[in-house]
Amino acid sequence: MAIKQTIWDLDQKVALKPSINITEKELEDLIDSDINFLSEDWLVIGRQVRTKHGGIIDLLCLNSSGNPVIVELKRNMTPREVTAQALDYASWAKKLNAENIAEIHSLHSPDKSLNDAFKSRFGVELSEDYDDKDIQIVIVGTEMDGSTERIISFLQEYGIEINVLFFNLFEHDGKRLLSRAWMFEPDQVSKTSESSKVPWNGEYYFSYGDEEQRAWEDASKYGFVSGGGGPWYSNTMQMLAVGDRIWVNIPRTGYVGVGTVKDVAKPAQETIIQTEEGPRSFYDLNLHANYNKNTLPGNEEFVILVDWQKQVPLSEAVREYGFFGNQNTVCKPKTDKWNFTVNRLKEIWDIDK
Fold it and tell me: What mean pLDDT do residues 34-50 have?
């Protein structure tokens, strides 16, 4: 698949002249200064990162799910050797723990903690559950040979999230213009990787976070879960339907409950809760937190009504090594780690099905 990019000046009806007046370091400087040139879903945490095998990663990033992204910049060509090199780097990055990632970031940005940088970039805190992360590989170059294309396609079929981002430079009126094009749509690469993982067990994960905005004692008492503060937090809640079962985890605390969805996500101001005194509007309840009340449009709290099968107080939250954790409010994990987490919770809480 040869990808050729051309930019035309519609007024003068001529194609812009390609430019080669850029070094790999200049391109790296450009991307490091504003990673949005490549992706709005990445945070740069390291540059020229040396692996323990002696290799040097051009750019190491995290995506909004907290997964590492290895970015290799190759201006003139993207040969097979670059693909092999990136896979070697990925095998090293796969073994990094939270402390390793924080240390790499501190060398790149000593004036800001990794947690602060992640929250500033994505609006959420970085999960402490860092084990078993998926690795993304992105090779940035101007062209690619057919053999490399076949290798990358083959790796994708077996669950490796690898992609190529082509860029070209053009000159026009004394200015240099940068264009880009993905070899494969990023969403399609993720779907291909997911299809190679273990089958989904039918159980949903729910992250009930931010103790300043919501309280578990309210959710446990009145039968609900909630999320809000922006679309990133609330959009994933829309995937839940009546009858779905959720396992609720409070970040840095542990799993506190499992239950079945009784009603789909609705804005808190439109939610009615059945109490012993009769139906009550959500914000009329005796709540112990704010739940984004009186917030700006778009940041509203969304509520999902739940029929609890098991819930425990915070003092009895279950948190064990190897448990699954995720940045998203809701997700449907397809990993051995999630299967282990659900089966272990079933044992602890004596749940048969």
Answer: 87
